Amino acid sequence: MDFKLDMHTHTIASGHAYATVLEMVKAGAERGLELIGITEHAAGIPGTCDTMYFHNMKVIPRKMFGIEVMMGAEINILDYNGTLSLSEELIDRTLDIRIAGIHDLCYMVGTVAQNTQAIVKAIENPRIDIISHPDDARIPIDYDTIVDAAKENHTLLEVNNSSLDCLSSRVGAWKNLQTMLKLCEDRKVPVIADTDSHFADAVGVFDHVSVLFEELDFPEELVINRSVDLLKKEIKKHRMIRKIGKQG
């Protein structure tokens, strides 16, 4: 598959990544991407950027090295009610792309029901476009419920290449993603593959994801990465459906 976009990447601003915005975007261009998302960790991760970083992202060009750039954040889900670690005002005013996920550094792992509720609340949030790495067996969730919620809300579930790497601290990702993808195929729920790159050499490298998709014979038409326009339409659909629901 020809991956046109990689929406989950981190730079030195996240505190534990090792390349600059320019280096990450250039790497994406060299690997043939048409769009890259720079999504620094939000509050809750040790050493990450202050909120002022997000306020000033307007100075960063949205096109560099011939590819489009979306500046955003990977926001922490803090509790079972889906509370986010960035304010609604900051999300609305500053972020082109909004990812949310659970990190055990700032979340007390609960039961399957509690963890599932936390993610579903984020899925239902009109400000969140993508759920990051819903694959760690240390944070067990009910995939039937998650996939159904993603379908209803047009929120994208991530297939995280980093989770599948043998160096990852996440546990059981291969098996959990198999479960999630089979449900997504059955229910026609689109997914997005991301690298979760913390260094430039990983940008746009979907080696593990490609093997997983091939093993499952996962339908290419359900993978958002094949088209920038498709990603933008799905995000717009998600934000609009929630807005309509609120007005109704």
Automatic annotation (TrEMBL):
InterPro entries: PHP_dom, PHP_phosphatase, Pol/His_phosphatase_N, Pol/histidinol_Pase-like. Pfam families: PHP. Signal peptide: none annotated. Residues 5-79 form the Polymerase/histidinol phosphatase N-terminal domain. GO terms for cellular component: cytosol. One of its GO terms (molecular function) is zinc ion binding. PANTHER family: PHOSPHATASE YCDX-RELATED. NCBIfam families: PRK09248.1. This is Phosphatase. It comes from Candidatus Anaerostipes excrementavium. The lineage of its organism: Bacteria, Bacillati, Bacillota, Clostridia, Lachnospirales.
